[in-house]
Amino acid sequence: MRFTHRLILAAAAAFAALPAHALVIDDFEDGTLFFATPGSGVVDGAGIVGGERDMSGGGSFAVTGFFSSNLGGNGLLVMEQRIPAFEPPHSFNAVYDGNDDNPAALPFVADLNKVDLTDGGASDAIRIRVVENSTEMRLDVTLGEQKPANQGSQTETTFAGYSLVVPVVLAPTDFYLLFADFANPGCNSLFCVDTSPLDFTQVDYIGLEFFRTLIPSAPAFDTMSVEIVDTASVPVPEPSTGLLLTAAILILGHCLPRVGRRSRAGHRGSAQ
User: Fold this and answer.
1) Which residues of 126-157 are buried (b: 16+ CB within 10 A; e: fewer)?
2) Contacts with 162 (C-beta within 8 Å, 6 or more apart), sequence order
3) CA neighbor of 57 nearest in space, from 89, 88, 92
4) Buried-state track 200-228, b at ≥16 Cβ within 10 A, e below 16
5) What is the pLDDT of residue 21?
6) Which residues pair with 165 in a beta bridge?
7) pLDDT digits 0-9 by tens, 4-55
8) Any bridge partners for residue 44, and if so which?
9) pLDDT at position 248, please?
């Protein structure tokens, strides 16, 4: 019995070691916004990093798209589009660059005022929880850090990016983007930038872009919803911990029916 107790304690420790989440970038519970794409809008709120989320979406006018957040109080960022065959799909953007009341990409602003995504070293990744995704989508995450230029008062921005292919999702699923896997692109579609490493403790800009990976060959309806974007520490479990956890679950599954039988037998004995 003591061995069983030790396994149960090991299982509890393994569950306690699941990833801890630190800094909330956006939980999509502030304000409500709904618009057709192409289109844009702004949501302000204390639960949004930098106090504001800039939202925009667009592409072919033949595509009917909708972009919303917290619609009906659902606490979700939702992207929907109805795409005719062989039409380029829409892309959907959520940008965090400070409270500028401007959802447009230009003029470029990076004013988060040095957010520490590592939360003092407690986090090593960005976590994105996808609640639903009807088709394969790509998510590009771009981080920016403003640095003083060598001359005058100009500012250069260092960018680091991560591309994630999100498969079909039928139940809430967490995706972790390790800081160590972000690459410095040198240039993005709008800017050529400083190619020095980005400091994840000094972030001034966060951009999320969601888009369909393939142009459909037949009419399609896509929907994707995201519940939260935050930072996290993603520990790698030791093999011994995983084995103990598996053993504990198997033993519990074996012991619980026996406990039930003993309990029923005890009741019958007392009844006699």
Assistant:
1) bbbbbbbbebebebbbbbbbbbeeeeeeeebb
2) 126, 140, 141, 177, 181, 182, 183
3) 92
4) bebbbbbbbbbbbeeebeeebebebbbbb
5) 61
6) 138
7) 444 444 444 444 444 556 899 999 999 999 999 999 999 999 999 999 999 9
8) 52
9) 46
